[in-house]
């Protein structure tokens, strides 16, 4: 232990004596570790961000049936262009067909203007829903209540508004039981949804929920619907999706072998698409960072070779006084690892700073992981060990008599 601390002390003294050279030596490691911490933090933060947004939009315990499936090719786009719209009766058929499904709600979306007194908000997402909507976790009320099934059945003009709509229209005034105008029609506010936040700068709270019948009065009797489907338990989600597929095909009279003319999405489906699209990008980023580490390691090896050359007489004197080959190897390796690891610590700090700056000034989130810090510093130690091994072996192989003759 004392030998190790002595070697570390010698390494730190050498670093302090040659500050500029030491900084330039570990610059590659600093850049690499800064990149590791920043990239991993952004990747983890983005993954959590997208997961929360997808679950918030679809629901962890539900899936949706939509007019359009996932489009991957031009042929797919041509094939699905004439897909029929989703109908409320199809939702009824899905619910009736499967015992694995407990609720099916129809939902329609359209943009419209929201008004209250002299306050106006453009491009509010107006959502028309059927009676089973309140069984889905994506709908909630922080203040007031949800629209009741009876109000939906009777097409009562009431609305549940998003947090941003309440904040911008009412400016601190209690919105409950106030009458707002949505897309030209008057609605009484019965509830305010809890704040969901934004997704890449786009608000998820700029919406108003109204009965589907009221939605049809304003936007037509055949809106573009999607069906929200809730399985009995998360364990039967796959079976429920299979049942829903069969029910939709029967309802649409699709012959065996004919492709589905609708799309079906669960949270896992959307997250799978996201990970497929981004894994390649993230792999390239990590590859670039790895190249920086290799370059940094080569620089460290060159510097350590130069250090061995500069300290040839010192190494010869140590060997003449009884130092063994492993003692010399241990000394040089310790100096190499210490130098490299210092770059890791500086890079870790700068990585934290970079992640904080990105989070502060952009919509991109960052989640710093403790394991990424351990990996960053650990990798620099390994780099120092690997690239310091050749200079250490070369120093240990010096003949003490020849080394003492060096000027």
How many structural domains does the protein architecture include?
Answer: 2
Tally of helical runs: 13
Task: Indicate the structural class.
Answer: alpha+beta
Quote the average pLDDT.
Answer: 79
> How much helix, percentage-wise, in residues?
55-70%
Series of H and E elements: HHEHHEEEHEHEEEEEHEHEHHHHH
Summary, kept brief:
The protein has 407 residues and is of the alpha+beta class.
Q: What does this protein structure show overall?
A:
- The structure is a single chain.
- With 407 residues, the chain is an alpha+beta fold.
- The protein is 57% helix and 17% strand.
- It has 2 domains: 2-53 and 273-405, no CATH class; 84-261, no CATH class.
- The protein contains 13 helices and 12 strands.
- Strands 2-3-10-5-7-6 form a 6-stranded mixed β-barrel. A two-stranded antiparallel sheet has the order 8-9.
- The mean pLDDT is 79.
Provide key terms for this protein.
407 residues, alpha+beta, 2 domains, six-stranded mixed barrel, two-stranded antiparallel sheet, elongated
Topology:
Blueprint: H1 2-17, H2 19-58, E1 63-66, H3 74-80, H4 88-97, E2 101-116, E3 119-129, E4 143-144, H5 149-153, E5 158-161, H6 163-170, E6 179-182, E7 185-192, E8 198-199, E9 202-203, E10 207-211, H7 212-219, E11 225-231, H8 237-251, E12 263-266, H9 267-310, H10 312-320, H11 325-361, H12 370-396, H13 400-405
Parallel strand pairs: 3-10, 5-7
Antiparallel strand pairs: 1-11, 1-12, 2-3, 2-6, 2-11, 4-7, 5-10, 6-7, 8-9
Helix pairs in contact: 1-2, 1-11, 2-9, 2-11, 2-12, 4-8, 9-11, 9-12, 11-12
């Amino acid at each position: 232990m004392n030998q190790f601390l002595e070697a570390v002390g010698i390494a730190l003294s050498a670093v302090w004596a040659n500050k500029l050279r030491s900084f330039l030596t570990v610059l590659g490691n600093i850049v690499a570790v800064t990149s590791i911490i920043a990239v991993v933090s952004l990747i983890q933060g983005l993954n959590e961000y997208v997961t929360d947004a997808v679950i918030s939009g679809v629901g962890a315990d539900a899936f949706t049936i939509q007019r359009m499936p996932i489009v991957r090719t031009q042929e797919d786009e041509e094939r699905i262009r004439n897909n029929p719209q989703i109908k409320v009766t199809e939702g009824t058929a899905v619910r009736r067909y499967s015992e694995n499904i407990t609720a099916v709600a129809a939902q329609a979306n359209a943009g419209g203007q929201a008004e209250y007194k002299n306050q106006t908000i453009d491009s509010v997402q107006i959502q028309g829903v059927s009676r089973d909507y309140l069984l889905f976790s994506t709908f909630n009320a922080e203040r007031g209540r949800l629209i009741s099934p009876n109000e939906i059945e009777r097409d009562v003009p009431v609305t549940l508004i998003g947090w941003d709509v309440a904040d911008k229209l009412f400016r601190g005034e209690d919105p409950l039981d106030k009458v707002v105008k949505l897309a030209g029609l008057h609605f009484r506010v019965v509830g305010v949804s809890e704040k969901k936040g934004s997704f890449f700068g786009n608000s998820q709270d700029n919406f108003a929920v109204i009965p589907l019948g009221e939605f049809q009065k304003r936007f037509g009797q055949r809106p573009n619907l999607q069906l929200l489907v809730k399985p009995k338990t998360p364990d039967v989600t796959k079976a429920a999706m299979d049942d829903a597929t069969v029910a939709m095909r029967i309802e649409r009279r699709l012959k065996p072998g004919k492709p589905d003319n609708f799309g079906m999405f669960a949270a896992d489906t959307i997250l799978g698409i996201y990970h497929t699209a981004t894994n390649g990008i993230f792999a390239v980023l990590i590859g670039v960072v790895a190249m920086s580490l290799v370059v940094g390691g080569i620089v460290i090896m060159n510097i350590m070779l130069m250090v061995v050359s500069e300290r040839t007489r010192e190494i010869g004197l140590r060997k003449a006084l009884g130092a063994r080959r492993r003692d010399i190897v241990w000394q040089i390796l310790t100096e190499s690892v210490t130098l490299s690891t210092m770059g890791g610590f500086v890079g870790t700090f700068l990585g934290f700073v970079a992640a904080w700056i990105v989070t502060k000034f952009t919509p991109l989130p960052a989640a710093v992981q403790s394991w990424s810090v351990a990996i960053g510093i650990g990798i620099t130690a390994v780099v120092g060990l690997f690239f310091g091994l050749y200079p250490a072996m070369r120093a240990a192989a010096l003949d003490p008599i020849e080394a003492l003759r060096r000027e």
